[in-house]
Design a protein that fits this description.
alpha/beta, single chain, 307 residues, five-stranded mixed beta sheet, 17 strands, eight-stranded mixed beta sheet
Length: 307
């Protein structure tokens, strides 16, 4: 398992009976998690001193209950120490993310993805160190509030950020400004990811790194339907056409139960390695649980590395 264990402003404090106790900066939230099927004593004091609690409804969905929680706050993530390039290439730099509770339990950030940010940041930095004149172009699809976009830009990449939600793209731009990346070479696009990739193929554009974080279900700006079980394989085949001759990486993330690491690995080997060479690895990703020493599974990732 790949573990996101470099956070300072975020931690999973405890887990029990379908819920996780989290610290987001100085605020403590309780949110449901389907992986937490065990029932252990809730000894951590945070269970009684929470600032927000998302209650799942038996009818679907749910609602927040707040206890002195602001409408919005921020946390930071320490970037890996990079030797050259980028807008943030020295030790001690951070990415800053604005958070706010969504009506469907999310906060605007998936902290477990930091383990992937660190991975591709090192690949980008290494490529730029080997050839300072080489531009590293990265495409981030289903890019949400921009965690991966900002990590890639900070490492020195030119990033194209694509998401179907105008609100999410605006939120990502705010995160970029707060992270000192307001002038970084990032293209911010509100678009349907499939249609954008089709146009990029026709234009002959290529990318050195591609990040794909598709939802289980979604709609594009014009009502386009995305169902991951039906769409991910043809979209992976399509998007692979955008990789450059000397591509560095392709990252696929999944939070869908049926798309386990072995399934992601098979798809990537078939669509990428068979024609482009390189190497594929796939693992669960997770977050350490401070109170118990366990690691909470948080989905799966598949990494293709070129070369």
């Amino acid at each position: 398992m790949w573990i996101a264990d470099n956070w300072k402003d975020y931690e999973v404090l405890d887990t029990s009976a379908g819920e996780k106790l989290e610290r987001w900066g100085k605020y403590i939230l309780v949110r449901p998690d389907p992986q937490v099927i065990w029932g252990t004593p809730r000894d951590h004091e945070g269970w009684k001193k929470k600032n927000g609690h998302y209650h799942r409804s038996a009818k679907g969905g749910g609602e927040w209950e707040f206890f002195n929680l602001p409408d919005e706050w921020s946390i930071s993530y320490p970037l890996p120490c990079l030797q050259q390039g980028g807008y943030k290439a020295t030790c001690g730099d951070h990415l800053t993310f604005h958070l706010k509770p969504f009506s469907f339990k999310h906060t605007g950030l998936f902290p477990e993805q930091a383990v992937n940010w660190d991975w591709f940041s090192q690949l980008i930095e290494s490529a730029r160190r080997s050839d300072a004149e080489r531009p590293v172009k990265v495409l981030n699809l289903f890019a949400y509030t921009g965690g991966a976009t900002l990590a890639a830009a900070a490492a020195g990449a030119q990033v194209t950020h694509v998401d179907a939600s105008k609100g999410m793209v605006g939120w990502a731009r705010e995160n970029a400004v707060s992270s000192g990346l307001g002038n970084a070479p990032i293209r911010w696009l509100v678009d349907d990811c499939v249609k954008f990739v089709e146009r990029e193929i026709r234009r002959g554009n290529k990318y050195d790194g591609i990040i794909m974080d598709p939802p289980s279900y979604g709609r594009g700006p014009k009502g386009e339907i995305w169902k991951i079980e039906e769409s991910i394989w043809p979209f992976l085949q399509l998007t692979s056409q955008l990789l450059s001759r000397n591509a560095l990486f392709f990252l696929i993330n999944s939070y869908t139960t049926g798309l386990q690491p072995a399934v992601l690995s098979y798809m990537a080997n078939t669509a990428l390695t068979a024609t482009l060479g390189g190497r594929v690895e796939a693992e669960e990703i997770g977050l350490p649980v401070t109170g118990t020493g366990l690691v909470l599974p948080c989905g799966a990732s598949c990494r293709w590395t070129g070369g």
